[in-house]
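User: My advisor asked me to double-check a structure prediction for NADP-dependent glyceraldehyde-3-phosphate dehydrogenase before group meeting. I don't want to rely on an old file, so could you generate it fresh from this sequence?
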Amino acid sequence: DRTMEYIGATIAAARDEKLPFQSRQLVCEGGVAARVRRAPIGVMLNLGPFNYPFNETYATLIPALLMGNSVCMKVPTTGGLAHFLTMDAFASCLPKGTVGFVSGKGRLTMPPLMQTGKVDIFAFIGSSKAADALIKQHPAPHRLTIYLGCDAKNLGIVTEHADLSVAAKECVTGSTTYNGQRCTAIKLMMVHKSVVEAFVPKFLEELGKLKAGLPWDKVELTPMPEANKSEYIEGLMKDATERGAKVIA
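Assistant: Sure, here is a fresh prediction for NADP-dependent glyceraldehyde-3-phosphate dehydrogenase from the sequence you gave:
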């Protein structure tokens, strides 16, 4: 699992004797020289996403702990059960109060925490609008150390020289894996006008091969994680068609 590999590499880097916590020697990377001082910053407020609950959350949480910070983690409303085992692990291995968990709707629970001014690090993956709104709640936002992953919009490009069979398969995989609910999913495709008529049937053929069902049935398409997601998607389709788009599948 890449999450465990990342954590292992992070621990190895923290133990690297060539990078002491306080060094008077200059470290050069990419032509830039600097003195490196590794030290805790304070309290991290960590908001992980529901769609990649482990990798995206612990990629910021674990390094923060290794540097001596404490963490307050917002458990996603959808997919929060995935963190129950790690809650037990943190409770048994770390001093009391090192990692705390908050549940509930983010719009209700996060602003009061930011307003205390006791958050030193803000780690968030989601929309830039939500991130901006939360940062403004902090009484001293200029002093926040911020790690954001916002509004990923990925483009699939099919050129006039592409192998259309390969391109169609990759575009379907890229746009539908995890039901398309991942930061790296293809959100939009641009196909060269000279091959678009030949590409669309191949794309639809690959799309038709996908099986729908429940996750434990080893299928490619599964139910949406939230009750109102279907209506939301239908609303997007309606908006697109009203603006001139054509539904092909």
